[in-house]
Amino acid sequence: MAQKLAFRHLRAIQYRILRRSQFRRTFLFALQAGSPLVRSLLASLTLLAVAMAAPVAAAQKVALFIDVSKPGPKIDRNLFGQFAEHLGHGVYEGIWVGPDSKIPNTRGIRNDVVAALKAIKVPNVRWPGGCFADEYHWRKGIGPQRTVTLNPNWGGVIEPNTFGTTEFMDFLDQIGAEAYLSVNVGSGTPQEAAEWLEYLTTAQPTTLAKERAANGHPAPYKVAFLGIGNESWDCGGNMTPDYYLSQLKIYSRFVRNFNPAQQDKQQMLKIAVGPGGSESRWTEWTDAIMKAYQSHTWSWDMNGLSMHSYTVVKWPPSFTSVGFGETEYAQILKSTLEMNSLVEKHSAIMDKYDPEKKVALVVDEWGGWYAPLPGSNPGFLAQQNSLRDAVLAALNLNIFARHADRVRMANIAQMINVLQAMILTDKEKMVLTPTYYVYKMYVPFQDATFVPATFDAGTFTHDGITLPRIDAIAAKDKAGKLWLAITNVDPNQSAEIEVTLAGMNAKSAAGETLSASKVDSVNSFDAPNTVVPKPFSAKAQDGKLTLKLEPKSVTAIALEQ
Ligand code: AHR
Q1: Which of 93, 167, 365, 550 is catalytic?
Q2: In the predicted model, what is the mean pLDDT of the chain?
Q3: Contact 473/402 with Cβ under 8 angstroms?
């Protein structure tokens, strides 16, 4: 009992130290990053607590404090965006099967996929690429006669262009998402892009508008986001920052959205190509674009700076997406956590030129990139999706949410059958991945208000790799309900989270938890329910709400007063 009281007292001291600091999260991140002063202070407190408390159980407890009275920025729903490139079976077979297919479809678009995507409330879809976008010529994909071309980026296969503008906009309409179009800067012209936008958005009876009407859509479409090029420093034309800037200014000026409903409100947001890493090449790129933005005139503008960052560890991608152990689990998660410093590095440069944070950092390609599945076309980037990917997704979504003032959009790569997908299909079969379920569990966080959560993440070490054991975010949804998402990264030890709230008295919690027996557990066509969420609930006892989390799990719960 004395030990218990002493432990409580120590926790109270830890709380007070943390609560006094304006930078509670920074403090905890400093611990993870290895700041010697903070590390030794917390380590001593923790060691003392461990020594005085009952040996194992107490060591697994985590005190989590949420101050409901201190709301932060909005967690933009667009952080949960998707990316669908003409690549492998991402579009063809994944979305498009054609109206004559035996697979149930609506105007050629798979019904099972649409129903699954509706359930995760996809806010926006980036299309048609990726590297593909800089070779895409939109006119080849409209009207009754489509031009058959090639897809040299991705396996050199035939591109039938049967899925074009009409089909993409129909798909968005069916799933209830907004359009994020990437226009061709690499091999296209400003005129081609400007005409695409006129075709899509004008309500006036121009020749292009009449062509759109003849193709089945008299009303103008809404285009919410315009990506001006893709990786223009590499597959998009290997441009220097200055060369790209000259293109950006021209495209920004002339590629107009004419939709009358998007003139004052809901204006189309223009997203410039941004960095692809942390090295000086990338910081110089961000610096150049943001410096130009700072002195931009009326004639051009940008609302977002794109950033691409995959979790790869080694290039070419050699980690397998199935059949791996805890070492690879720890290596991949360690690498994925670098997203935090990457976001902070580029945000700091953006702050220099845009302290009001008018320009969003748009992480429009991210996710785990592993070796192609044996027997698959290496150009199709086909991989399985495991419990490790669910944890990876939650950690990244949490990083984005913690930087929600600057990171206002993100698009996981890619939606179906490619890289870290939500959905895998094989002819008529469809399976939902562990990553899909994380997106489903995080739906309440879309457009919710970030609420700071403070906790000592602790660590776990495997094979010399040390990771934070716990990660968590909290947010208040539009109805005022408080949500908590907690990840227990430790693959073997459960965690007990003692929740303390300021400004609210939580009596119970209910939601879902996602885990499985192994770090590489997957959902397959034969066993689609290996990694699926289970109901989770907890009730406060003696005024204390304790959550028991399974090892390697992601849990999302609402707290009830
Ligand atoms: O997502 C696959 C590819 O990765 C994209 O086409 C490209 O933008 C990135 O390099």
Answers
A1: 365
A2: 90
A3: yes
502: closest CA among 548, 547, 558, 453?
453
Tens of pLDDT, residue by residue over 198-249, are: 999 999 999 999 999 999 999 999 999 999 999 999 999 999 999 999 999 9
Atom in ligand 1 nearest the alpha carbon of residue 85: 6
- For residues 305 and 363, the answer to whether their CB atoms sit within 8 Å is no
Catalytic annotation present for 231: yes
Which are the contacts of 183, defined by CB distance < 8 A and separation ≥ 6?
133, 193, 196, 197, 226, 227, 228, 229, 251, 255
Measured by CA distance, the residue closest to atom 8 of ligand 1 is: 130
Residue identifier of the C-alpha nearest atom 9 of ligand 1: 130
Catalytic residue among 135, 231, 328, 550: 231
Mean pLDDT along residues 298-303 = 98
Let me know if 498 is a catalytic residue.
Answer: no
Q: What is the Å distance from ligand 1's center to 59 Cα?
A: 43
Confidence of residue 503 (pLDDT cuts 50, 70, 90): confident
Ligand 1 center–CA 522 separation, angstroms: 24
Alpha helices in 53-138 (DSSP H): 111-119
Residue whose token pair is 């130009």: 292
